Structures are given as C-alpha cells and as structure tokens.
Amino acid sequence: MPKVGIRDVAKLAGVSTGTVSRVLNDHPSVTDELRARVRRIIDDLGYMPDPSARSMRSKVSRLIGIVIPDLTNPFFSELVQSAEQAAASHGYNIIVMTSFDDAAKEADRIGQLTSRKVDGIILVPSNDFHTLKLPKALPIVVVDRLMPGYSGIASDHRSGVRLGVEHLLKLGHRRIGFISGPRHSVPANDRLKGYLDAMGQSDDDGQIQASQLIAEAAFDYESGRSAGNYLLARARSERPTAIFASSDQQAIGCMRAAHDLGIPIPAALSIVGFDGIPLSSMTTPRLTTVKQPIQKIAAAAVAVLLNKQPTPGVGHPILLDCELAEGETTSSPQPD
C-alpha cells in the first residue's frame, strides 16, 4: 500500500496542504467544522505526519528528554510516567535515559539528547553531580536532587520528614529511630535535617546526640532491612519504639527486619516511610508514609520547559509540599 501523504489528505478534503498543517497544529484560525472534516479524513486515510519533517520546518522537535539515575526505583518510574502524561497533554513526547547514578554516563546521556535536538531536558542528577557541566544552549530543569547554581523543582523534603516525625511524636513516641539516605545525597541530607528539626536537635550536634538512633543506608529494600536490624537488635528498653525511614523501600525492608525479630507492627513498633509509591499501600499492614507530589513535580517541570510557567530563579527552587498518608503501621507506644 502506498504511503499516504499530506497532499492526499488535502485533495480529498478540498483544501490546501497549509490548511491541513494548520489543523494538525491546532491553529486557531481553522473553524470547528473544517477541523472536524479534515480530522475525519486523516483518520479514514490513516495519515501519520512525519515528525522529523515537522521538526525541520518548525525548528521544534516536540520531544523532551528525561535523565534519571535508576529506572528500577519506583519513585523515578512514577516520575517518568507522570512526565510523559504531562508532556502528552501539550503535544510532546519524551525520551527516557538512565545515568546509572554515574556522572560520566550522565554527561553522555545529556549529549545524546542534545544531538537529537530535544526541546529541553528534565534531569534528576546523579549523586556525583559536582563534576557535571550542563549545556547552556538547551533548557534544562533539575528535579528532586537540587544542584547549586541551577534552577530546580523538588518536594520540600525537610518539612515532609518533619511532618512524619511530628506524627510519631504526637502519638507519644520519644525513642524515634531514623534510617537516613546516603550522606552524599542532597535529598537524604534534607530529610535528615527534617528529622533533627522535629527532634529538637541542631545540624551540628544532632548526629552525635542521636547516633544510636540513626542508621545510614541506601534507599533500597535490602539496605532498609539491614538498617532495621541494626536499630532493632538491642534490648527492648533501648531500641526505638518508632522508626522513620527515608524511603518507602527502606521502610518495607525495615518491616521485614521487625517481622524476622518477632516485633509486631504497630503494637511494638511504629514505622513511617517517605515517597508514597504505590507499593506503600500494598503492604500488610499498610504503610504510613509521607507522600511526595510526584505528579505535580513532573507537571511543573514540563510547564517550565515549555514556558507555560516561570522558570524558578537560581537559589530559589520550587518546593512542593508533601502530605502524610496514614496507613496501619503507626500507633501509640507500649510501656517498657
């Protein structure tokens, strides 16, 4: 079957190719009746515009690149999906690339996207972003892991953690353990500050005063399980009555550690996670978590790239509020 072209559509509709082009681009000068007629013929013929040709004519690729550290992390997967939905609502598609949390691979991925003439990039930087130099000629929005010297969009990690720890304090917990993220991670450090804020400790002395109640870990399940074992494998009078984990994956790993040690949740241990990934609502008991506004972050990033909302100023990132999603893993502490 010969390929259907824009001239075929124009001939059958009795209009010029320019009118068909204006219909395809939703130009306001086209009447509703004419738009509907041309669209019907496009559907009947199965005409598909050539995106590369349209890009050459308009100098706009209608492509947005997104670079993330790890596609297996549920938070980043949901961020990509939300970005794709937001981009599609504006008539754009996305290209996803993974840096594997490596600065050299990250620079390579950005270079590849630049050569493919994307209209902008959403970037979740690697933790080793200090060596990264971003191209100045291409719009780039940094999300989640904010970088000094660049505009960005993220959850308010610090106040989000403070919200979750304050929930535990209101329930009566005082020995509250904390599973932090990696020390070189910007969000992890912000979340640690939120914990210290809620516990009434300063950044300077907090880690020293609470060192027995803080366990550093990666954001994944197994690391959370190991951190949970560290915090819980001690006498009942010394172990925490509640634990705040810096990610839902950590929290679920910690729940497994408590199960293996015979510590019932929430009767003898309360647990709160962070992120609000779909898996948090599927655990037994259902995890209480601080939910990040992932869809809002993605939508804002796309809107900034497409000039639908102002670009945040350097040093003045857009910080979006988190919310507490109460599940079944928190209750008042039992007496020692």
From TrEMBL:
Keywords: DNA-binding, Transcription, Transcription regulation. Gene3D superfamilies: 3.40.50.2300, lambda repressor-like DNA-binding domains (1.10.260.40). InterPro entries: HTH_LacI (IPR000843), LacI/GalR-like_sensor (IPR046335), Lambda_DNA-bd_dom_sf (IPR010982), Peripla_BP_I (IPR028082). The keyword Isomerase does not apply. SUPFAM superfamilies: lambda repressor-like DNA-binding domains (SSF47413), Periplasmic binding protein-like I (SSF53822). Residues 4-58 form the HTH lacI-type domain. GO terms for molecular function: DNA-binding transcription factor activity; transcription cis-regulatory region binding. CDD domains: HTH_LacI, PBP1_LacI_sugar_binding-like. This is Probable transcriptional regulator protein, LacI family. The lineage of its organism: Bacteria, Pseudomonadati, Pseudomonadota, Alphaproteobacteria, Hyphomicrobiales.
